[in-house]
């Protein structure tokens, strides 16, 4: 988030931002295969920064200074902001006595969802009860979640509301009342 100008007066400066979630207390090189946003004062410095990124196993991606916050924001959406949905899913499995099968149950579903979304891009299609306009199922989910925990119900409603723009207007209009929102 610091501008490249913060490195002044150095004439050849760059910023290299690994677009990866880094976990503490791990000894493996967590950067391998991730993108590295490169912003530099000049093309020669950009080439050097790109070479350094590649030596570290990252894929260099040039990013203009004025746009540099946007890939960082995208990275936050793609990593940290997925966690409320994933942790909620694991909490619900735990409530069902299936916590020890979370990888078996959620792994293929998560991977397919991510693969489908990356392949389709911003036109990706949602599936499930919200996309079908299935108010009855949404209401059943909310009643059951309220028994498990109010926070899970709240998370379900918030994430489902965030999903509404990705479904048809007809489906959104039908299920929005069950989420406590208007489509």
Gist of the model:
With 183 residues, the chain is mostly helical.
Give a description of the structure:
- The chain is mostly helical.
- About 55% of the residues lie in helices and about 10% in strands.
- It has eight helices and three strands, in the order E-E-H-E-H-H-H-H-H-H-H.
- It has helices spanning about 45-55, 70-80, 85-95, 100-120, 130, 135-150, 150-165, 170-180; strands spanning about 15-20, 35-40, 60.
- A three-stranded mixed β-sheet has the order 1-2-3, with helices on both faces.
- Helix 3 (about 85-95) crosses helix 7, helix 6 packs antiparallel against helix 7 and helix 6 (about 135-150) packs parallel to helix 8 (about 170-180).
- The radius of gyration is 21 Å and the shape is elongated.
- The two termini are about 35 Å apart.
- The relative contact order is 0.09.
- The mean pLDDT is about 95.
Question: Which helices and strands appear, and what pairs or packs with what?
Answer:
Layout: E1 14-19, E2 35-40, H1 43-55, E3 59-62, H2 69-78, H3 83-95, H4 102-120, H5 129-132, H6 135-148, H7 150-163, H8 169-179
Parallel strand pairs: 2-3
Antiparallel strand pairs: 1-2
Helix pairs in contact: 3-7, 6-7, 6-8
Fraction of residues in β-strands: 5-15%
Instruction: Give the overall silhouette.
Output: elongated
Structural class: mainly alpha
Largest sheet, if any?
3 strands, mixed
- Discrete helix count: 8
SSE ordering: EEHEHHHHHHH
How far apart are the termini?
35 Å
> Radius of gyration over alpha carbons?
21 Å
Helix share of residues? Answer: 40-55%
Q: Count the beta strands.
A: 3
Widest sheet, order of strands: 1-2-3
